[in-house]
Design brief:
The complex is a heterodimer.
Chain A lengths: L2 H16 L4 H6 L5 H12 L5 H5 L1 H11 L6 E5 L8 H5 L5 E5 L9 E7 L2 E4 L4 E2 L1 H13 L11 E5 L17 E7 L2 E9 L15 E5 L6 E6 L2 E2 L18 H15 L3 E9 L3 E8 L5 H6 L4 H8 L9 H11 L3
Antiparallel strand pairs in A: 1-6, 2-3, 2-6, 3-4, 4-5, 7-8, 7-12, 8-9, 9-10, 10-11, 12-13
Chain B lengths: L4 H25 L8 E16 L3 E6 L6 E9 L4 E6 L4 E7 L3 E14 L22 H14 L4 H12 L4 H9 L2 H11 L4 E8 L4 E4 L2 E8 L2 E5 L12 E6 L5 E4 L1 E16 H9 L13 H10 L2 H15 L8 H12 L1 H22 L6 H25 L13 H18 L1 H22 L2 H9 L2 H14 L6 H6 L1 H5 L2
Antiparallel strand pairs in B: 1-6, 1-13, 2-5, 2-12, 3-6, 4-5, 7-9, 7-11, 8-13, 9-10
Helix pairs in contact in B: 1-15, 2-3, 2-4, 2-5, 3-5, 8-9, 8-13, 8-15, 9-10, 9-13, 10-11, 10-12, 11-12, 12-13
The chains are: A alpha+beta, B alpha+beta.
């Protein structure tokens, strides 16, 4: 055995036992790391002044309405502690609703009530909670428990989304959403996030949600992962994930792409939901979208980001031009 | 890509700043590079005694000038005498004086010296003046010795060596010359007629624990551009016994007026002392030396703590950017690490884990009370204080209060840590709490190990330039766009596909 073979076998043994990937291999596949995202994309393309446009969900909603971007309907807002008791007058008219902190981050502090019956408020998990629970949740939200940096916040109450039957049996106890990374107005990568029992109804991949990579040109599922491992079926419902395809895909791309002008952020994560009645809606925007989308798609972000960066247009492109570019110029 | 030049210039500037500061502090001020470095300090006491005549008396003692040794401190002890230590460009002396002096008197001069690392070569001499020839037959012998030595030598250095050799041999001319003159006097004369600059000096052979020592006659010869010290009377110099040149260019060591039977004895002692203490002692008040030793002790102690924080910050930056460890609160680990310094590691870990876990249990009850956030955090702070009081009391009862100093924990930080972890527990589950909790503790322990290291403490406090290095390191890591170690694991599935 030559020295080189010995070295290689030691190296692969280390990689096997520690389960580390070779950084050069990751680099050659265009996988973006957190540091690169922060330095080369978030810090460079996202103007600090525009952050409130996405961090404050109420502001996002106002901007979206101004630009004619579809968003879930607003029921009410709670700004002061003493309003907490009065909000129930409005809530009585809505059997289902969703409470969100205006400045929340990472899906924290979102309370989803799917129905109101004689046992109280029913959460997505089927568990019933009391009025006191809702009051406490609102108080916590106003005190800033869920907000970035713990500053005082306010709560927004939205109509609950009735999700599209295409996700029937694909999401356990939670709203499935579609995350699209939009770079300089060009949608570059997409995935559907499906809640599981393990993720407790949440759509965060690191909590055990299923990530389904969606082909950016067609809207068809291309790969699926849970806990970083490839899967073919939803772990709770056993429904096949491979046949998932999202209808009206170009409309979703246009909606996501138009969030670029609205928010002013160059590197943006757009979270969409498909409402049975209203079609695609913008749920929220994220100025620091995560990197799990690469695992769900089994491909790196960098090649497409660099392709967009190399474009030299003097006149800003319209949404339609950008979507056409994405549909025609991205290669697989 | 953005223009990286200004960034690289700043990094380079910081490195240059750091290096020059460390160089200055080490070479010019003499701060040792390691904390434990010792230097030999020679303590020399001159005891002067004389009998007073009843009238006014003055005693003047010549003091050594700066040469191969550096004066660290000096004292004089002399009952009822006025003392004046005079040092100027040309001479150095201690002057005692008193109006009425009768009977035996004893005066003391004490000084401590360290050997210099760098020796100044001394002034270049003027050419020796022509001397009156010696009376015959000595002049002829001297000329004969010189002539013989000249023939047997090739340059100035070997000429000096030959003359010395002849003086200590059985040579007849040498014997004749030495019958009238001392070996040193003869040598000086021979040097003069050979046109080699030389001068008489007297010095002290330094040896630990010697008493009743006298100055030995020495000769300094200027050869090849520097002064060589030679002990003509006893031949070669002993390399192990350094010589402190006490006197040169001046004939008398001690002048006493108004007294008689004056004599002087030296005693010599050696002690080792921390090189750091010596460097700072000799530097005090001299000049601006970029050191913190001029500050009052309380401020110094404060800075000893504060200047460790950049070390902790460096560890945190490294662990988060390069390794990719998750911690609860960015700089919480540094604060925990600083309290570990006070409590010792094991006690700190036990105290921290017990307070946080009991706190989490109490917090889970508090959350049922439906409190507003600010009130709940404040309640958390009080719970932490209560736990610290309780644990300290228990420790006192058990007689281990000295070891369990948990009062040093930053209470507000602990309360926030408990609050954050409890929210994390509710939202993300217990696994994330353990990941972040142990991530924080791991970084805290690592930061503690770096900050508690004697060597690092020494550098952080004595070489402020180190902080420029740290700044450069933090800035450089701030532009690191490579993968984190944790990402190599996270993206492993992407490397496996083909």
């Amino acid at each position: 055995m030559s020295m080189k073979n010995i070295r290689l076998s030691i190296k692969s043994a280390i990689e096997q036992s520690l389960n580390y990937a070779d950084p050069r291999l990751l680099h050659s596949r265009g996988i973006m790391g957190m540091n690169q995202r922060n330095v080369a994309y978030v810090a460079r393309y996202n103007d600090r002044r525009c952050y409130p446009n996405v961090d404050n969900k109420l502001k996002t909603k106002e901007l979206a309405l101004e630009d004619g971007i579809a968003v879930p309907a607003l029921i009410d807002t709670v700004i002061y502690q003493h309003d907490v008791n009065f909000v129930f007058e409005t809530l009585d008219k809505h059997p289902s609703f969703c409470i969100k902190p205006a400045n929340g981050s990472g899906g924290k502090g979102i309370l989803v009530i799917v129905d109101t019956d004689q046992d109280g408020y029913r959460k997505a998990s089927g568990e019933h909670v009391s009025k006191d629970y809702v009051i406490r949740h609102l108080s916590n939200t106003l005190a800033g428990l869920f907000s970035l940096g713990g500053v005082t916040d306010f709560a927004i109450i939205e109509e609950l989304i009735e999700f599209d039957p295409i996700f029937e049996g694909l999401s356990h106890e939670g709203v499935p959403d579609i995350r699209i990374i939009v770079f300089k107005g060009y949608p570059v990568m997409a995935m559907a996030r499906l809640a599981t029992h393990a993720s407790d109804g949440k759509a965060n991949l690191h909590q055990g949600a299923v990530g389904v990579g969606i082909d950016i040109k067609t809207g068809f599922a291309c790969a699926a992962v849970q806990h970083n491992q490839p899967i073919t079926h939803h772990p709770d419902t056993q429904r096949s994930l491979e046949n998932l395809s999202i209808g009206g895909w170009p409309d979703l791309l246009k909606l996501a792409s138009s969030c670029y002008e609205m928010s002013g952020l160059g590197y943006l994560g757009v979270d969409l939901v498909l409402d049975k009645n209203r079609g695609p809606l913008v749920l929220e925007l994220n100025a620091r979208p995560g990197l799990s989308i690469q695992i769900a798609n089994k491909r790196g972000l960098l090649p497409r980001l660099q392709q967009i960066e190399s474009l030299q247009h003097r006149r800003p492109r319209t949404v339609e031009e950008r979507i056409n570019y994405v549909l025609n110029e991205f290669n697989d | 890509m953005h223009n990286r030049t200004p960034f690289l210039v700043i990094i380079a500037g910081l490195l240059v700043l750091g290096f020059s500061n460390v160089y200055y502090r080490h070479v010019e001020v003499g701060i040792p590079l390691t904390p434990g470095e010792r230097v030999d300090v020679w303590q020399i006491e001159a005891e002067i005694s004389f009998d007073g005549n009843g009238g006014p008396a003055t005693a003047s003692l010549a003091l050594p000038r700066s040469g191969q040794f550096e004066l660290i401190e000096e004292f004089t002890a002399s009952p009822a005498f006025g003392v004046n230590v005079i040092r100027d460009d040309t001479h150095a002396e201690a002057l005692w004086s008193k109006r009425e002096v009768a009977g035996p008197q004893t005066l003391y001069y004490q000084a401590a010296f360290t050997e210099k690392t760098s020796v100044d070569s001394g002034a270049t001499p003027t050419r020796p003046e022509a001397r009156e020839p010696l009376p015959e037959p000595y002049e002829s012998s001297a000329q004969a010795i010189l002539k013989g030595a000249y023939e047997r030598s090739g340059n100035q250095r070997s000429l000096v060596a030959q003359i010395l050799l002849t003086l200590s041999s059985e040579d007849q001319n040498a014997a004749l010359l030495l019958s009238e003159f001392s070996r040193t006097e003869a040598f000086i004369y021979l040097m003069d007629i050979a046109k080699v600059s030389s001068k008489m000096a007297r010095g002290l052979l330094l040896e630990d624990g010697r008493r009743n020592q006298r100055l030995v006659p020495l000769v300094k010869v200027y050869v090849d551009g520097k002064w060589d010290l030679k002990n003509i009377e006893s031949g070669e110099l002993d390399a192990d016994k350094p010589i402190l040149v006490w006197l040169e260019d001046r004939p008398s060591l001690l002048d006493v007026t108004g007294g008689e039977n004056s004599r002087i004895r030296f005693s010599i002692g050696k002690r080792t002392s921390s090189a750091l203490t010596q460097a700072n002692r000799s530097g005090v008040g001299e000049k601006w030396d970029f050191g913190l030793y001029h500050l009052p002790i309380t401020e110094q102690n404060l800075f000893k703590g504060i200047l460790l924080i950049p070390i902790g910050a460096l560890v945190v930056v490294f662990m988060r950017i390069i390794v990719g460890l998750r911690t609860s609160g960015t700089f919480m680990p540094i604060l925990i690490a600083t309290s570990f310094i006070q409590t010792e590691l094991l006690n700190g870990l036990i105290g921290f884990i017990s307070i946080v876990s009991i706190g989490l249990a109490i917090r889970s009850y508090l959350s049922k009370l439906n409190l507003l956030l600010v009130a709940r955090i404040s309640a958390g702070v009080m719970v932490v204080i209560g736990l610290i009081v309780l644990l300290t009391m228990i420790a006192f009862q058990l007689g281990i209060s000295d070891t369990l100093k948990i009062t040093f924990f930053p209470m507000i930080i602990m309360a926030w840590t408990i609050e954050r972890m409890s929210i994390l527990w509710e939202e993300e589950g217990s696994k994330e709490v353990f990941v972040q909790g142990f991530g924080s503790l791991f970084v805290a322990v690592l930061a503690y190990l770096c900050m508690d290291n004697d060597f690092i403490r020494h550098w952080a406090f004595n070489f402020l330039g180190v902080h420029a290095f740290i700044m450069a390191g933090v800035l450089a890591m701030g532009q690191y766009t490579g993968y984190r170690l944790s990402e190599l694991k996270r993206f492993r599935p992407l490397a496996d596909q083909h």
